[in-house]
Design a protein that fits this description.
three-stranded antiparallel β-sheet; mainly beta; 50% strand; five-stranded antiparallel β-sheet
């Protein structure tokens, strides 16, 4: 389909430092959440904090990126560092482990973020030390309906 405006595949980076600042500004509440640390590594975002006096650790990874959806797995644990699920199953609960939540999957839908007259698809996504890289496929847009 020919669109008025068209683009070739390109990538967008969500900056790790900007995410840290935004999360710190919106999540940290004196008396509730403190000591928030956010670390971008190859393939995951690791976080730790103290919430209600209890230490919490977690990991965010990308499960899938296709079409108009980015699926993120979020694993949260209290007590010890987050381990990969296959390794965690082999170990007995550690002292102080209060919560061990199976990773929940959160879906971010581009359809809810973009106007209907913009046609774009997610080709892939990855987490790195500099942030989250989103690879967009070719797309286009027409003027909004009048």
């Amino acid at each position: 389909m020919t669109r008025l405006v068209q683009w070739d595949p390109f990538r967008i980076r969500v900056d790790a430092e900007a995410v840290r600042a935004l999360v710190e500004q919106r999540v940290v509440e004196p008396g509730l959440v403190s000591g928030l640390e956010l670390a971008f590594t190859e393939g995951a975002i690791e976080f730790s904090a103290t919430a209600g006096g209890a230490p919490i650790r977690g990991r965010v990874t990308i499960v899938a990126a296709s079409g108009l959806e980015l699926k993120l797995a979020i694993a949260i644990h209290a007590g010890r560092p987050v381990l990969p699920p296959n390794l965690a199953k082999l170990l007995p609960p550690a002292a102080g482990d209060v919560v061990s939540v199976e990773p929940m999957v959160v879906t971010v839908s581009l359809a809810s973020l973009l106007p209907a007259f913009v046609d774009v698809t997610l080709a892939a996504a990855e987490i790195g030390k500099d942030g989250v890289i989103v690879f967009l496929g070719p797309g286009g847009a027409d003027p909004p309906p009048s």
